[in-house]
Amino acid sequence: MGTMDPLINELKNRARIYIHIYRELSKELGPEKATGTLKSALYARGREKGLQLAGRIGKPDLRALALAFVENKENMDAFGHEIVLENPAYVVLRLNQCPLVEAWKEASLSSEERKTMCDIAYQVDFGKFEAAGYRLSFTRRIADGCGSCDLRVTL
Hints:
This protein has helices spanning 5-29, 31-57, 62-70, 99-106, 111-121, 123-131, and strands at residues 81-86, 90-95, 135-140, 149-154. By secondary structure, the chain is of the alpha+beta class. The chain has one domain: Muramoyl-pentapeptide Carboxypeptidase, domain 2.
């Protein structure tokens, strides 16, 4: 077993949990409300993480954020974090793989279902970056069939 296998397995487990929660909530509330409820919950968790990030790096600073993005990832990086571009106006951060999307493929979710799960799951990222004082957009997503997730972050 590789050093990242337990981490990847846990991330895949989380992805499978998202499927089950989404399906159960969809039965009770309908798909639209289920999606909205899960997005809100994950965004809230992301905000908790973002406040921790802000406490660690201080006032919004794109360079400090980029360094925090790749910090301590050498041996335990299930997502393949990378800094693609840094300039004074924005940074582009990349995730080169996604165990969540892999798990959704393994669970035989359709392309559209994988996109929906990603729309839900990546709310944690929006909550995290926004709570820390940044604006986030995704210019590419693995769930959309791209080779990476590219995060464009501005102040």
